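Contributing: when you submit paired examples, paste them exactly as shown. First protein:
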Amino acid sequence: MKIMLDAGHGYNTAGKRTPDGMPEYEFNRGAANYAKNFLENYQNVTVYFAHSDERDVPLKERTDKANQLKVDCYVSIHANAYGSGWNNAGGIETYVHPPKPKEAYELAQKIQKNLVISTGLSDRGVKTADFHVLRETRMTAVLAECGFMTNPNEAKLMRSDTFQKTCAEAIVKAIVDQYKLIRKNTNPETMPSNSTSQPLSKKGLYKVQVGAFNDRKSAENLANALKSLGYDAFIHFE
């Protein structure tokens, strides 16, 4: 399977940056790099980049490349914005082309769900738009907006390597689910031996932390999303 990841814009794209100057591309390419690394752990997967760290690649060149390579899936990674100054607009939204191709819409729904759960940000839903990368590609194409650059809290997250990795994991999880990808080296005989590991105690309670946030609202959003899926989630303040 061929997958093209598109880190939206470039380092020098005018206007595409936080009010205090961080280029949107800094987040986009960080998440794309992590996504590529994760996807390469799956069988029969080839990952291409539509973007470049050397120059701002025009949109037509990106989609022409995807069409020429005949990739099966095109995922464009972005950060959103509202106006040019700091404000409270925030959350995750994912886009498909207005005709809502079935496979693209299904993938967008999976990406949206995973990003909301993983980041704890507000769910703005799956939407349609006549974006060039959605309109001119001949394969399944989606565009994910992973938070708002004009929201001070979300902009701070985007600078974080952890947040970039979290978004990448959410997107890759959706792709894996959509296309039923199989991890490499899943044969038990090729897995590392656990013979030297200490057995787990049968007593006590094991807990898993799934998020850490600077504001309670983000924590509550994630907890509510997990509860809606049937998990017994709670918030612990330190």
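Second protein:
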Amino acid sequence: MKKIIILVLLLIVMGNISSAQVKVGFSLGNRSIAAGILSYDLIATVPAGQTWSVGAATIRLNISPNPLTGLTIHPDNPVINPNPNINSGIYQPLKTLAASATIMSFNILTFNTSGFYRFTPGTYTLGKVRFNVVGSFVTDSIKFRVNPPFTTALTTVNDSTVALVYPTTFNITNPVVTGTGNNLSELPKEFKLYENYPNPFNPTTSIKYDVASNAFVRLTVYDVTGKEVETLVNDNLQAGRYEASFNGGSYSSGIYFAKIEAGSYKHIIKMVMVK
């Protein structure tokens, strides 16, 4: 009997631990450089079995480009392409600001202490973060400001009014630096989907694509059976050069396909993930 009681108590404790697991993860995706501006989408991913009730949040990014003068922070008030669910009502307009020359803050501010919007499991774009490109070429290194040696002005995230703790109840995935990107003086002349790099990959790969004119762009990833596993882009985009990231960390090794649809242009590339 005692063994049964102990087992029940352990199950309850385990259940409580499970409910306190990561509620939301942040990443940067859909990199683009056009008209002197480098931009990323700030993406929130809520894992299965969790929800994120979006209270006040300050999500900070640290920039350290090469050369150091290659990027400056481009604050936006309001942000470009804000998520409408957290940009009105009890929420103030989303904005980014330069906390210093090398620190950007993406701010979610609320008027109320209740009535927060709740994100269910899935992947959501919160808005764009943008940087000025200085010079012809730049390697961007942009990381979330959550780890030591940084000791002040760290990222803060609330679930309702409860502060989440990094990395146990929220986490981050920094973008992969894939090389240099130039400040385009000319827009692409044609739509194009490039081969992903690296390929094979484990578990993250970058997919570059050109948008020749303003268009609705959809970039999706399918497994070898033809099942859609992730939508990377689903938005109206201006002409420019873009880059999306696919993180296959939660998928098995194998062959995947990335398909782009932009206006009348369609193209598919084959990607191989080896873990």
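If you have annotations for the second protein, write them as plain sentences, like these:
The chain is about 5% helix and 50% strand.
The two ends are 45 Å apart (CA to CA).
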